[in-house]
Amino acid sequence: MIRPFTFSDLDRILQIELQSFPKSPYDWATFINLHYLYPETFWVYVNPTLDRKEGQILGYIVFTKEGHIISIAVHPHHRRKGIGKALLERAMITPHLKKVWAEVRRSNQRAQAFYLHMGFQVTGVVPNYYGNEDALIVQWTSPPGSY
Ligand SMILES: CC(C)(COP(=O)(O)OP(=O)(O)OC[C@H]1O[C@@H](n2cnc3c(N)ncnc32)[C@H](O)[C@@H]1OP(=O)(O)O)[C@@H](O)C(=O)NCCC(=O)NCCS
Known about the structure:
Blueprint: E1 2-4, H1 10-20, H2 28-37, E2 42-46, E3 57-63, E4 69-74, H3 83-92, E5 99-105, H4 109-117, E6 121-126, E7 135-141
Antiparallel strand pairs: 1-2, 2-3, 3-4, 5-7, 6-7
Bound molecules: coenzyme A.
């Protein structure tokens, strides 16, 4: 199930964030800010059948209304089950969105494989986007006539 982010999700989102981006995790203030900036396009993936203590929130995505992915992450124990796909598709099915794009670390080959699997292409490079590492720009364009 995918539903909008709420403040009660924050602790669990921060856990996923720390495990997914150990070099540069967003902090709680950033997530609160993202919630205010993008209240309609900040989604969490929830499996309500799981134990509450273990955590029912398994991933999140936040993107702008123009289609820029600010962040996407899935809990490491729940990867390769289609959760990232379901979250990214939430962006790709947004009405009137002509393209969806993201920055990915050059070293993040798993995320690159994920985006390529989802029909994205590498369209550019931003040198030193992450300080000492380049970003690849990956982009998906909606098929003609679909918006
Ligand atoms: C990238 C990420 C969101 C993918 O989430 P996920 O739920 O594991 O992805 P899915 O299960 O939906 O994968 C869909 C397809 O993408 C490809 N893919 C996903 N992860 C992959 C990996 N580690 N290696 C190779 N291909 C991969 C596969 O083709 C996969 O299909 P398959 O499992 O049937 O082979 C997740 O790995 C993650 O949170 N990574 C850390 C945070 C991150 O790097 N975010 C992106 C920053 S821009």
